[in-house]
């Protein structure tokens, strides 16, 4: 992959986690300063729709079931066509009115078992009763569908294919053949779904969780290999671009944490892979790019690849000029979860700035699509909503300004109540790449605050976003 592509060494997330990242990717601008996990908005620009106006056909193949929940149901419809593979995690796929709960309880570790209906864990154990052979695994089916698209359309002009797998997301469920190389000797019940939070499991349990992750990554690696084989078979390298990346990382015990969403956005979560093959830049194959980039840059890049213009609201950069040696337009990049810290890196330092009190901060969601990940906004939230005048990126549309309420569906999952860590920290990546030892450096922190305020201002962040982080003194300078 690296020999065929340019490897981007400083590629970062933007809005976190899954659907916020996809909104960044489709629209080319960060959204976590205004909104938590939610749908595409009526005023959003989506790169597949812009491409369609220029005659480029787009197709999505995915097993990412969050697209079909309340908080993601407007994304896949932006493509010309889509293929949805069922069965991942808590996807409400297979129906069992009276499951064999006692048998299933013996099969799975208690930490990843539930009999509660409309629960990801209970649905997962039901789904897995129907995933037995390699061909049954959703990620395998996703790549099979993507390769079928290539077999049918490889010689056609002007198309974009997005092959998107939920794996290696938890639970780390891979065919047995991929687990053999990582056998830990574990003789307990199935243990492949870590909690979100502090590590408190016994060492052998931790090793089994990690081993199942390694097996899932090995599966993904094999599937990516099939795609590269298809590029060879159809001779696509000469006229077809290929972009390989992800939405975020995952902790496997680093910093004494599992997963994401509960802790600082450490490098293992924020600093993600990106490979870009552009056949018009074949001389760059095998090179590495150290320019700062992030998820939102993908939208501009896909438009650039197809010769389409960027709308005014899109604030991302195309990656293609960076391959040609131009400097990044990002002197730093922002990233974060709605309601948590605002994080910034200039590639040398990372700075994670939290409000003094997450629970008492003044914060609002700005939306015309009031749904959370798998629920509507609570009536108590909407009862206090106000109509906010149009923002510069809403194309004249006013917005609902909805106070964040502790009873909302997102509050303790992707909102202010989710965080175990809430301490403002500064790290020097050159001397401490593992972010083990925060530093005190008033000059660097001052510079990061100025950069943060300037970038938030350019992203049209609402006034309270500066107030909650005590950035008002820096906002005046940014204006």
TrEMBL record:
Annotated ranges, domain Sulfatase N-terminal: 1-307
Protein name, entry field: Sulfatase
Entry-linked SUPFAM superfamilies: Alkaline phosphatase-like
Keywords recorded for this protein, A-Z: Hydrolase, Metal-binding
Superkingdom of origin: Bacteria
